[in-house]
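Quick one: structure for this chain?
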Amino acid sequence: MGMGAWVCFECRIAVRRNTQYRGQVPCPECGKRCAYLGYKIPVPPKSKPRLWQQLQVQLARERAEAHQQAVLNNTRLRHELEREIARIERLPTNPGRRSLLRQLQNRLSYL
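Got it. Here's what it folds into:
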């Protein structure tokens, strides 16, 4: 595991921790949970609040885009599974077909 940067935007503090602690790093000053930045994003100096605000906006935008992409991928996977189920249902009945349909329907129920 590598070392990553976590930041507290309220205190403008950055801490480096092993990446296995992702999402569980408390701020050393206020105790709130720090936001994970990764290991490549530069952290601005504490004395530059405008740069901290820009970093916070950038991080929020990237997370929103990642969420939208995950939703889109989930929707695509759902449609692919639905098409595959419909295709298999058109095939003649046999034990393997029933088992495969059950597996695909289970996967679809988890989406």
